[in-house]
Amino acid sequence: MKKIYFPMLVTMILVASCQMKTKTVPYDPIAAKAEVSKAMDSINMAAKARDNKTFLSFFTEDGLFCGTDPKELWTKEDYAKLVEKMLADTTMHFDMKVDKKEIRVEKDGNSAITLEQFITRWSKPITLRSTMHFVKVDNKWMVDFSNIAFIPDNKDILKITAAVK
User: Fold this and answer.
1) CA torsion angle for 116, 122, 45, 42 (degrees, to 10)?
2) What are the pLDDT digits (tens) for 113-163?
3) How many domains does the chain have?
4) pTM of the full predicted structure?
């Protein structure tokens, strides 16, 4: 039994010393929030400028993109086709005025959840909410999930329900 103590001790030391050490890189939460905000603004500016290429450059290839209809769940490929049509349609206006903007950066500094609330010409008087999940890919903030939804005031829900019966 005494003969295996030394080899066991050496083995334990080797195993412990060869473990990968994960290095936590500190990040500046204020700077990260500003970077995400800038990415959000760039997405909105690209839509207003009808710049399909720039707009889609912020969305990951493996993302999930959701519209206002329950059936509107798109891959990047499907979403790109829709965005191309929407941005080419000059009757569509991207004149949204953001009333509320929230950004929550995760503790590791590599992902963030955002929301913007706004009313457009075509949604008036119902507010829309855009929720996105950003991830840092090669030092660039990219969207791997987005959802847009109507968010009527609670006092209007019965009226809306009655109108669609």
Assistant:
1) 30
2) 999 999 988 888 899 999 999 999 999 999 999 999 999 999 999 999 999
3) 1
4) 0.81
Could you tell me which residues come within 8 angstroms of residue 125 by beta carbon, excluding any fewer than 6 positions away?
119
154 in any annotated domain: yes
Whether 122 and 46 have beta carbons less than 8 Å apart is answered as no
Strand order in the sheet with 128-137: 73-74, 59-66, 140-150, 128-137, 111-119, 97-105
* CATH classification of the domain holding 41: 3.10.450.50
Which residue's entry shows tokens 């457009």? Answer: 120
Sign of the C-alpha dihedral computed for residues 96, 100, 105 and 106 taken in this order? negative
CA pair distance 145, 125, nearest whole angstrom: 26
Please tell me whether the peptide bond between 7 and the residue prior to it is cis, using omega within 30 degrees of 0.
no
The radius of gyration of the chain from alpha carbons, rounded to an integer in Å, stands at: 24
